[in-house]
Prior knowledge:
Oligomer: single chain
Order of helices and strands: HEEEHEEEEEEEEEEEEEEEEH
Strand order of the largest sheet: 2-1-16-13-8-11-10
Structural class: alpha+beta
CATH topology of the largest domain: Immunoglobulin-like
Amino acid sequence: MASRSGSRPNTDRRSFLVATGATLAGGALATGTASAVESAPYHLSQGDQCVPLQPLQGDDPVEAFYDYRRDRDSSYGTRSLQQPNTSVLFLYEGPDGVSLVAVHGALGGNGDGGSITFDISGLPSSGDWIVRDDSYDGPNRYDRWEIDGDSATVDWTWDGRRADGAVYGPLGDDVSVGIDPAFNERAALYGDHYEGNVSDWQALSGDLDDPTRTSLDRSTPLRIESGSCPTTNTTATSSTTNETTTARSSSGESTTAAGTDTTGGESSGNGDDLQRILDGLARLFDRLSQLFDRLARFVERYL
Protein backbone atom coordinates (compact mmCIF):
# COMPACT_ATOMS: atom_id res chain seq x y z
CA MET A 1 0.00 0.00 0.00
CA ALA A 2 2.79 2.42 0.87
CA SER A 3 4.49 2.07 -2.49
CA ARG A 4 1.22 2.61 -4.39
CA SER A 5 0.36 5.80 -2.53
CA GLY A 6 3.95 7.01 -2.82
CA SER A 7 3.93 6.73 -6.62
CA ARG A 8 0.67 8.60 -7.13
CA PRO A 9 2.08 12.15 -6.76
CA ASN A 10 4.62 11.41 -9.49
CA THR A 11 1.86 10.25 -11.81
CA ASP A 12 -0.18 13.32 -10.98
CA ARG A 13 2.81 15.57 -11.67
CA ARG A 14 3.42 13.92 -15.02
CA SER A 15 -0.23 14.17 -15.99
CA PHE A 16 -0.38 17.82 -14.99
CA LEU A 17 2.79 18.80 -16.84
CA VAL A 18 1.91 16.88 -19.98
CA ALA A 19 -1.63 18.29 -20.01
CA THR A 20 -0.40 21.82 -19.40
CA GLY A 21 2.24 21.52 -22.10
CA ALA A 22 -0.35 20.23 -24.56
CA THR A 23 -2.67 23.12 -23.72
CA LEU A 24 0.12 25.65 -24.28
CA ALA A 25 1.14 24.01 -27.53
CA GLY A 26 -2.46 24.20 -28.72
CA GLY A 27 -2.56 27.86 -27.82
CA ALA A 28 0.59 28.48 -29.80
CA LEU A 29 -0.88 26.80 -32.87
CA ALA A 30 -4.09 28.76 -32.56
CA THR A 31 -2.27 32.05 -32.14
CA GLY A 32 0.09 31.62 -35.10
CA THR A 33 -2.18 33.02 -37.81
CA ALA A 34 0.07 32.57 -40.83
CA SER A 35 1.84 29.23 -40.26
CA ALA A 36 3.77 27.32 -37.61
CA VAL A 37 7.15 28.13 -39.11
CA GLU A 38 6.57 31.88 -38.76
CA SER A 39 6.57 31.57 -34.97
CA ALA A 40 10.11 30.17 -34.86
CA PRO A 41 12.24 32.09 -32.33
CA TYR A 42 15.04 32.64 -34.88
CA HIS A 43 15.44 32.95 -38.63
CA LEU A 44 18.21 32.72 -41.20
CA SER A 45 18.23 35.18 -44.10
CA GLN A 46 20.30 34.72 -47.24
CA GLY A 47 19.62 36.81 -50.31
CA ASP A 48 15.86 36.69 -50.92
CA GLN A 49 15.47 33.53 -48.85
CA CYS A 50 14.40 33.47 -45.21
CA VAL A 51 14.46 30.21 -43.26
CA PRO A 52 12.67 29.92 -39.87
CA LEU A 53 15.00 28.30 -37.35
CA GLN A 54 13.74 26.20 -34.47
CA PRO A 55 16.69 25.18 -32.25
CA LEU A 56 17.34 21.45 -31.99
CA GLN A 57 16.66 20.63 -28.34
CA GLY A 58 18.56 18.25 -26.11
CA ASP A 59 19.02 17.49 -22.43
CA ASP A 60 22.84 17.66 -22.52
CA PRO A 61 25.02 20.79 -22.44
CA VAL A 62 26.14 21.64 -25.95
CA GLU A 63 29.76 20.57 -25.34
CA ALA A 64 28.61 17.10 -24.27
CA PHE A 65 26.13 17.00 -27.16
CA TYR A 66 28.87 17.83 -29.71
CA ASP A 67 31.17 15.25 -28.04
CA TYR A 68 34.49 16.19 -29.64
CA ARG A 69 37.01 13.35 -29.27
CA ARG A 70 40.73 13.50 -29.87
CA ASP A 71 41.05 9.94 -31.18
CA ARG A 72 39.46 11.01 -34.49
CA ASP A 73 39.45 14.78 -33.90
CA SER A 74 35.75 14.84 -34.74
CA SER A 75 32.28 15.27 -33.28
CA TYR A 76 30.78 11.97 -32.19
CA GLY A 77 27.58 13.44 -30.75
CA THR A 78 26.35 14.86 -34.06
CA ARG A 79 26.90 11.74 -36.16
CA SER A 80 23.17 11.32 -36.80
CA LEU A 81 23.11 14.82 -38.33
CA GLN A 82 26.29 14.49 -40.42
CA GLN A 83 26.26 13.72 -44.14
CA PRO A 84 29.22 13.08 -46.47
CA ASN A 85 30.40 16.09 -48.50
CA THR A 86 27.92 18.26 -46.59
CA SER A 87 28.21 21.10 -44.10
CA VAL A 88 25.36 21.63 -41.62
CA LEU A 89 24.54 24.73 -39.58
CA PHE A 90 22.00 24.85 -36.75
CA LEU A 91 21.08 26.17 -33.34
CA TYR A 92 21.14 23.82 -30.35
CA GLU A 93 19.20 24.50 -27.16
CA GLY A 94 20.36 22.72 -24.02
CA PRO A 95 20.30 23.48 -20.28
CA ASP A 96 22.81 26.34 -20.75
CA GLY A 97 20.88 28.15 -23.48
CA VAL A 98 21.06 28.36 -27.28
CA SER A 99 24.33 27.87 -29.18
CA LEU A 100 25.39 28.06 -32.82
CA VAL A 101 26.78 24.79 -34.18
CA ALA A 102 28.56 24.06 -37.46
CA VAL A 103 29.62 20.55 -38.53
CA HIS A 104 31.45 19.79 -41.78
CA GLY A 105 31.73 16.38 -43.36
CA ALA A 106 30.93 13.01 -41.80
CA LEU A 107 32.88 10.91 -39.33
CA GLY A 108 33.62 7.55 -40.92
CA GLY A 109 33.04 8.82 -44.45
CA ASN A 110 35.01 7.72 -47.49
CA GLY A 111 35.30 10.93 -49.51
CA ASP A 112 38.24 13.20 -50.19
CA GLY A 113 37.57 15.61 -47.32
CA GLY A 114 36.93 19.29 -47.80
CA SER A 115 37.84 22.89 -47.04
CA ILE A 116 35.72 25.82 -45.82
CA THR A 117 36.42 29.35 -44.63
CA PHE A 118 33.87 31.28 -42.55
CA ASP A 119 34.16 35.00 -41.84
CA ILE A 120 31.86 35.38 -38.83
CA SER A 121 30.61 38.67 -37.38
CA GLY A 122 28.20 39.85 -34.70
CA LEU A 123 29.10 37.21 -32.12
CA PRO A 124 27.46 38.21 -28.81
CA SER A 125 29.68 39.04 -25.86
CA SER A 126 27.57 36.67 -23.74
CA GLY A 127 29.12 33.69 -25.50
CA ASP A 128 32.44 32.03 -26.20
CA TRP A 129 33.93 29.37 -28.46
CA ILE A 130 32.83 26.30 -26.51
CA VAL A 131 34.26 23.88 -29.08
CA ARG A 132 37.06 24.54 -31.57
CA ASP A 133 37.28 21.53 -33.84
CA ASP A 134 40.21 21.11 -34.13
CA SER A 135 41.79 22.52 -30.99
CA TYR A 136 44.88 20.38 -30.37
CA ASP A 137 48.48 21.48 -30.91
CA GLY A 138 50.72 19.61 -33.29
CA PRO A 139 52.05 19.45 -36.85
CA ASN A 140 48.89 17.74 -38.15
CA ARG A 141 46.56 20.46 -36.95
CA TYR A 142 45.77 22.35 -40.15
CA ASP A 143 42.77 24.46 -39.10
CA ARG A 144 43.38 28.17 -38.49
CA TRP A 145 41.48 30.36 -36.05
CA GLU A 146 41.66 34.16 -35.99
CA ILE A 147 39.42 35.66 -33.29
CA ASP A 148 38.95 39.39 -32.82
CA GLY A 149 36.24 40.42 -30.36
CA ASP A 150 32.82 39.79 -31.89
CA SER A 151 34.25 38.47 -35.16
CA ALA A 152 36.30 35.49 -36.27
CA THR A 153 37.79 33.94 -39.39
CA VAL A 154 38.05 30.16 -39.32
CA ASP A 155 39.75 28.07 -42.00
CA TRP A 156 38.80 24.40 -41.80
CA THR A 157 40.16 21.49 -43.80
CA TRP A 158 39.54 17.83 -43.03
CA ASP A 159 40.17 14.29 -44.12
CA GLY A 160 37.27 12.45 -45.77
CA ARG A 161 37.06 9.97 -42.89
CA ARG A 162 36.60 12.70 -40.29
CA ALA A 163 34.51 15.76 -39.53
CA ASP A 164 35.23 19.36 -38.54
CA GLY A 165 33.27 22.18 -36.97
CA ALA A 166 32.71 24.50 -34.03
CA VAL A 167 30.29 25.62 -31.31
CA TYR A 168 29.69 29.19 -30.09
CA GLY A 169 27.35 30.03 -27.24
CA PRO A 170 25.30 30.86 -25.42
CA LEU A 171 23.88 33.37 -27.87
CA GLY A 172 21.57 35.26 -25.53
CA ASP A 173 18.27 36.90 -26.50
CA ASP A 174 19.21 39.48 -29.15
CA VAL A 175 20.99 37.54 -31.90
CA SER A 176 22.37 38.89 -35.19
CA VAL A 177 25.28 36.75 -36.39
CA GLY A 178 26.61 37.00 -39.93
CA ILE A 179 28.55 34.34 -41.86
CA ASP A 180 30.38 35.02 -45.12
CA PRO A 181 31.30 31.57 -46.51
CA ALA A 182 34.01 30.37 -48.86
CA PHE A 183 33.66 26.74 -49.95
CA ASN A 184 36.00 24.46 -51.86
CA GLU A 185 38.36 26.34 -54.22
CA ARG A 186 37.45 29.66 -52.56
CA ALA A 187 38.48 28.40 -49.11
CA ALA A 188 41.88 29.48 -47.80
CA LEU A 189 43.23 25.96 -47.23
CA TYR A 190 41.82 24.23 -50.31
CA GLY A 191 44.46 22.07 -51.97
CA ASP A 192 47.03 22.55 -49.22
CA HIS A 193 46.16 19.21 -47.61
CA TYR A 194 42.87 17.92 -49.07
CA GLU A 195 41.09 18.55 -52.36
CA GLY A 196 37.63 17.19 -51.65
CA ASN A 197 34.54 19.29 -52.43
CA VAL A 198 31.56 20.11 -50.23
CA SER A 199 28.46 19.69 -52.41
CA ASP A 200 25.75 20.91 -50.01
CA TRP A 201 25.35 23.43 -47.18
CA GLN A 202 22.28 22.83 -45.02
CA ALA A 203 20.42 24.69 -42.28
CA LEU A 204 18.80 22.31 -39.79
CA SER A 205 15.69 23.15 -37.78
CA GLY A 206 13.08 21.45 -35.60
CA ASP A 207 13.36 17.92 -34.22
CA LEU A 208 16.81 16.74 -33.14
CA ASP A 209 16.02 13.20 -34.30
CA ASP A 210 14.52 14.23 -37.64
CA PRO A 211 15.34 17.86 -38.47
CA THR A 212 14.12 19.84 -41.45
CA ARG A 213 17.01 20.38 -43.88
CA THR A 214 17.15 23.49 -46.08
CA SER A 215 19.91 23.79 -48.68
CA LEU A 216 21.77 27.11 -48.67
CA ASP A 217 23.76 29.00 -51.30
CA ARG A 218 27.44 28.22 -50.72
CA SER A 219 28.58 31.52 -52.25
CA THR A 220 26.23 33.99 -50.52
CA PRO A 221 26.58 35.50 -47.01
CA LEU A 222 23.82 34.81 -44.50
CA ARG A 223 22.61 36.20 -41.20
CA ILE A 224 20.99 34.44 -38.23
CA GLU A 225 18.73 36.67 -36.14
CA SER A 226 16.20 36.52 -33.33
CA GLY A 227 12.52 36.53 -34.23
CA SER A 228 10.38 35.38 -37.11
CA CYS A 229 11.02 35.99 -40.79
CA PRO A 230 10.19 39.63 -41.59
CA THR A 231 6.93 40.51 -43.35
CA THR A 232 6.95 42.83 -46.34
CA ASN A 233 3.88 44.75 -47.54
CA THR A 234 3.36 45.52 -51.22
CA THR A 235 0.52 47.94 -52.00
CA ALA A 236 -0.91 48.20 -55.54
CA THR A 237 -3.67 50.38 -56.93
CA SER A 238 -6.44 47.90 -56.29
CA SER A 239 -4.84 45.27 -54.05
CA THR A 240 -2.86 44.79 -50.88
CA THR A 241 -0.47 41.85 -50.66
CA ASN A 242 1.13 40.62 -47.43
CA GLU A 243 4.03 38.32 -48.22
CA THR A 244 5.96 36.36 -45.60
CA THR A 245 9.37 35.64 -47.07
CA THR A 246 10.34 32.08 -46.19
CA ALA A 247 12.30 29.30 -47.82
CA ARG A 248 9.13 27.60 -48.98
CA SER A 249 6.07 29.81 -49.40
CA SER A 250 4.29 33.12 -49.08
CA SER A 251 0.85 33.64 -47.55
CA GLY A 252 -1.85 36.06 -46.67
CA GLU A 253 -2.61 37.48 -50.15
CA SER A 254 -5.85 39.46 -50.44
CA THR A 255 -7.17 41.56 -53.29
CA THR A 256 -9.69 44.42 -53.23
CA ALA A 257 -11.57 44.94 -56.49
CA ALA A 258 -11.27 48.29 -58.27
CA GLY A 259 -13.75 50.85 -56.98
CA THR A 260 -13.93 49.37 -53.46
CA ASP A 261 -13.34 51.91 -50.68
CA THR A 262 -10.23 51.13 -48.57
CA THR A 263 -8.68 52.80 -45.53
CA GLY A 264 -5.18 52.91 -47.08
CA GLY A 265 -1.99 53.17 -45.03
CA GLU A 266 -3.63 53.43 -41.60
CA SER A 267 -5.36 50.07 -41.98
CA SER A 268 -2.15 48.50 -43.24
CA GLY A 269 -0.22 49.87 -40.29
CA ASN A 270 -2.76 48.56 -37.78
CA GLY A 271 -2.64 45.18 -39.47
CA ASP A 272 1.14 45.13 -39.18
CA ASP A 273 0.95 45.96 -35.47
CA LEU A 274 -1.58 43.19 -34.89
CA GLN A 275 0.54 40.71 -36.83
CA ARG A 276 3.61 41.58 -34.76
CA ILE A 277 1.61 41.10 -31.55
CA LEU A 278 0.28 37.75 -32.73
CA ASP A 279 3.75 36.64 -33.82
CA GLY A 280 5.13 37.63 -30.42
CA LEU A 281 2.39 35.72 -28.60
CA ALA A 282 3.01 32.71 -30.80
CA ARG A 283 6.72 32.76 -29.92
CA LEU A 284 5.87 33.11 -26.22
CA PHE A 285 3.49 30.15 -26.24
CA ASP A 286 5.99 28.15 -28.27
CA ARG A 287 8.77 28.70 -25.74
CA LEU A 288 6.40 27.92 -22.84
CA SER A 289 5.36 24.74 -24.60
CA GLN A 290 9.01 23.75 -24.98
CA LEU A 291 9.61 24.48 -21.29
CA PHE A 292 6.74 22.30 -20.12
CA ASP A 293 7.78 19.54 -22.49
CA ARG A 294 11.27 19.55 -20.95
CA LEU A 295 9.75 19.56 -17.45
CA ALA A 296 7.60 16.61 -18.38
CA ARG A 297 10.66 14.70 -19.64
CA PHE A 298 12.53 15.57 -16.44
CA VAL A 299 9.67 14.29 -14.26
CA GLU A 300 9.35 11.17 -16.38
CA ARG A 301 13.05 10.43 -15.99
CA TYR A 302 13.78 11.36 -12.38
CA LEU A 303 10.53 11.39 -10.38
